[in-house]
Amino acid sequence: MLEIKNLHVKLEEEDKVILRGVDLKIGAGEVHAIMGPNGSGKSTLSYVLSGRDGYEVTEGSATLEGRELLEMEPEERAAAGLFLAFQYPVEIPGVGNMTFLRTAVNAQRKARGEDELSAGDFLKVVREKAKALKIDAEMLKRPVNVGFSGGEKKRNEILQMAMLEPRMCILDETDSGLDVDAMKLVAEGVNALRSAGRSFLVITHYQRLLDHIKPDVVHIMAAGRIIKTGGPELALEVEANGYADILNEVG
Amino acid sequence: MALPKAREDALAARLQALPVAAGKGWLAAVRAEALARLTAMGLPARRDEYWRYTDPASLNAPEAPVAHSFDASDESEPFDGMDRLKIVFVDGVFDPAASDDLTLSGVTIERLAEAGSKDIHWAQGLYGVLETRGQDPVARPFAALNSAFATDGVLIHVTGKATKPVSLVYVHESEVSDAILHHCVKLDPGASLTLLENGPAAARLNKVMEVEVADGASFHHIRLQGRDHERRAVTHLFARLGARSELRSFTLTANGRLTRNESVLELAGAEGRAHLAGATVGDGEFHHDDTVFVTHAAEACESRQVYKKVLMNGAVGVFQGKILVKPGAQKTDGYQISQSLLLDEDSQFLAKPELEIYADDVKCSHGSTSGAIDEVALFYLQSRGVPRRTAQALLVLAFLAEAIQEVADEDIAENIHARLERWLARHGSKG
Predict the structure, then answer these.
(1) Which one in B48, B64, B372, B409 has a CA-CA gap of 20 to 30 Å to A83?
(2) Does residue B412 sit within a domain?
């Protein structure tokens, strides 16, 4: 599904190298987790993959189902099946959540040469999916993320994911700012979307999210590189001993 | 005090090029007074504080600068399909053939050109009267010039609830037309009227509208200034509001070389409400100035000013807005916001928000901002598959939404929204 090879990235504005040769391969239907201390480059990886400005790729490649992602505009990556659930979902005053969702869904359908969804069909689908995430009609009417609580924002991200049906989902610290109940709800939303044709990359600081979204593979990232890869037990090890042991072990 | 020589000469040249003002009876006398006011104040100059951000030269010039009429046939006529009473002016001259019959239940409509010969006329207490009141504390020479020389216009007396909107349509044909229009609207207690205006009017337009809103009356005004690129316009809306009355005025401006819209409002009776709003989009050689002066002279009145401008490719936007709260105008609720969205580094927004308050129990707020499009929001939209241009248009429309919300009629608001959407698609900025 997603294949990252020797990815080197620096900040455009300053001469600061963030990623120093990331290699990662995620198969169809797999759930991978990336853990790592602050500043290790986890969020940068998600931004670079989704096409945010301000980063310069100096080396390497990233392909989604064989197509080179790094040359595409962010909207092309989305149409190709990539989705990033933001760590800090953006508030957009003046744009209704429903308008936003419909514009996005139809833009992607159009980019893929499919017919746009009619207003009625769209409404039916969105209501059903919103209900599963306990998102009420009021939240759909309000401007995108404006005045939403932390939990509401994250649920709104998952709703977008459910509506857009991407092939490759990146979750950037989706657990941050959530209490246990909210995290469970979000995790259920994610689990409901797991399928043989859809892969996930879950970025997190803590193991607790991985209790709810069970990964197949866990990677530890430090100083812009993946330094260790293992099964779910690796996350437990981090939880028990912190990152220090692993960092020392790898040297 | 005598004017400096240069100003005297400028005024003399301007006056010489103007047609002798027609008007008999009371109108002739009122015009003579207006001319005396103009002669005393002279034409504005860039040196004047009130004209610091907008160069009045092309408005002062004896001849109207050439402005070709613009083919706007790619858009439907605004307010098409609405049940309305249509009054058409071509280059500032009433066109009876294109206009509807001027009869409407609860409303009397007359042409200015015919009003002078009538001895007893309600407009005597209005024509030039609100304009004169509006000359203090700031001189508005183009309004005085208008009262002295207006060649056409309508006098609208509303005695009840108008059953449909009155729609003034301004057609621009001649590339050198220099129109001076003066309208008066008087709403009796409890009366209501929606007044629509649209079209470029002329190569150069000077328009004054004086509106008396009596106790409990309601006046809704929606104006779409034409899409002509080269037109110039200076307009004044003078209004006085009685107790528990309401005024809502919204203006959409797209294109135009120079536009100066002044709104001068006086809340004269308790619990009056005045909402002024403007949405402006400008591309390239475009200068747009909203100058607003709201006076709270009575208790418990509410005023709102919401002005939003989207500027690109060197367009210039100006906002001068003042709220004056007079002694005794307790419980005043005044709100003013002026914002611009600059889509590139060549465009400019100049704002001068002012509050002057002489009462102690008031709530007044004002804000003015100028900024670029939110790149983070843009990326967020793109990351969901929305193409950059569509995303940008969505954010621009969201920015304008607060002003468009001031349009009470939902169909018209939707129409304005759709027009702006198409304008943005045609003028999509770089990137």
Answers:
(1) B372
(2) no
Can you give the pTM of this predicted structure?
A: 0.89
In chain B, the number of structural domains is 1
Characterise B7 by phi-psi region: left (phi > 0), alpha (psi -120 to 50), beta (else).
alpha
pLDDT digits (tens, 9 = 90+) for B111-160: 998 887 777 778 888 999 999 999 999 999 999 999 999 999 999 999 99
**Domain assignment of residue B408, yes or no:** no
Distance from the A208 Cα atom to the nearest Cα atom in chain B, whole angstroms: 27
Q: State how far Cα B62 lies from the chain centre.
A: 23
How far apart CA B93 and CA B180 sit, in angstroms, is 9
* Alpha carbon of A53: minimum distance to chain B alpha carbons (Å): 8
Q: Searching chain B, which residue's CA lies closest to the CA of residue A75?
A: B385
Determine how many CB atoms are found less than 10 A away from the CB of residue A27: 12
Q: What is the DSSP letter of B125?
A: G
- Whether B310 maps to a domain, the answer reads no
Which class for A121: exposed (0-12), middle (13-18), buried (19 or more C-beta within 10 A)? exposed
Q: Give the model confidence (pLDDT) of B196-241 as tens digits.
A: 999 999 999 999 999 999 999 999 999 999 889 999 999 999 999 9
Answer whether residue B29 is part of any domain: yes
Residues of A in Cβ contact (< 8 Å) with B381: 92, 100, 103-104
Match 């709220």 to its residue by tokens: B323
ipTM score for this prediction:
0.94
Q: B78 is in which domain, residue-wise? A: 5-269
Q: How many angstroms separate the CA atoms of A13 and B35, rounded? A: 62
Nearest to B209 by CA among B286, B314, B101, B134: B134
